[in-house]
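Discrete fold record:
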Amino acid sequence: MSRRAFITGVGVVAPGGVGRDPFWELLTQGRTATRRLSLCDPEPFRSRVAAEVDFDAEAAGLTDRQATELDRAAQFALFAAREAVQDAAWQGTCPPQRAGVIVGSAVGATTKLEEVYRQLSGDGALWDVSPDSPAELYSYFVPSSFASEIARSFGITGQSGVVSTGCTSGIDSVGNAWELIRSGVLDTVVCGATDAPISPITVACFDTIKATSTYNETPESASRPFDATRSGFVLGEGSAMFVLESEESVERRGARVYGEITGYASRCNAYHMTGLKADGRELAEAVVATLRQARLAPEELDYVNAHGSGTKQNDRHETAALKAALGTAAREVPISSIKSMVGHSLGAIGSLEIAACALALRNDVIPPTANLTQPDPELDLDYVPVHARKQPTNSVLTTGSGFGGFQSAMVLTDPEKSS
């Protein structure tokens, strides 16, 4: 029989605020953290807006080694993991071999890898890079270093790894951790995702395919999911990490829970690297499978945290998928996209959205879709425009759609409210 798994700790690094509480405050106030790109020179690019994190490694409590040697994404993950572990009061309560680490990331240590390569190659002038490369260069090359850094920080010796499925990495990493607990392999998993992709190579990649917003003169409103005037997503960065525990561990410790993960499923559309089928069939299938696992009828959902990237095709695709999966309930359930406020942090965003769902369950508040002021007549669901909504929230669905055709969904429920 499958075991149950509960979120007992949440840690966040996000644009607009470092930490779980500033993140939730920003979301519930409907404030946006998108601004003019500053982490690299914006002038060469078509899209010159970003959702950046004001992160000070020293102020965040990282050691000198971590502050100077680790990639920015690894630093985010470490801070978020520490906040989650402290929130759960978990450390030292589980045999180290019965705990694991699963980290999601779309682009790994892109920022540091590009930075060091440019230094060693004379800004690309040299074919053969300098042999005087830093010893930590290898750790920038392999994303597995993220998981090993967290495992080392907490003395975790059980199964650990990295999930990289593009923009669904943040859901899939937590889904993978959920499966490890359900199957009895582990009792606790520190899981979540991190990405710090705001670097010239990443900005150029999305410029090439015209996926990012061109509202350069109004960066604070550049991310406009479901709005008729949307022109693409705003590249972001950040991390969210969780402590996920078995029911036995929760009961033994008397731990407070944010919610239970009751369903998770993923599909691939086997169609196109960046294109999406208009009918959203694979995402709909993932949602239906997730609800079936959760033993939840569509009309029992209180909130859908949408992928809602703000591209023309994604918002149409997701709306079609939700209509197909939820039927008439799609017109009744509130749906919103937090990317309108914190941008699209690639692999990290799915975990940031899970964090938003966990906090929505705890606080009975639904975050809004900021900047939704001109409804698109093609998109006719309740996208919670501009202002947060206070309402009882017992069961939430979060969805993700990633380049490569990945489509994922997860359900969280509040066990106390639904019992």
